[in-house]
Amino acid sequence: QVQLVESGGGLVQAGESLRLSCAASGGTFPSMGWFRQAPGKAREFVAAITVATIPYRGPNTRYADSVKGRFTISRDNAKNTAYLQMNSLKPEDTAIYYCAANTAIGIFTGESGVGYWGKGTLVTVSS
Questions:
Q1: N or C, fewer C-beta in 10 Å, the chain?
Q2: Quick one: CA torsion of 4, 92, 65, 31, rounded to 10 degrees?
Q3: How confident is the model over 70-112, as pLDDT tens digits?
Q4: Are 113 and 33 in contact (CB under 8 A)?
């Protein structure tokens, strides 16, 4: 049974940092990522990462424009875990953050590319 379990959410002040983790089990997920849903808004893409297909080039990553330069996605293949380091947090980053994964290698930037979802972890950024 596939499970994606997020952790690391919480309440921080603007400018501070948080690190989210997503532990995957029940399968192999070359593609993993994060989406978020703010109150009253649709769920949106945040970041995604795939395993390296060309060893010397490292994994492939994608970011939403709103988080580029502030958020960094990474993964530990041995632990089947993805991370989202969030720096310089803003009040508009407040949302439920969902881990997403797929058994396909191709990187996703939309919900249609996601095969599995976590239950979400709440991030609240106060001003």
A1: N
A2: 0
A3: 999 999 999 999 999 999 999 999 999 999 999 988 889 999 9
A4: no
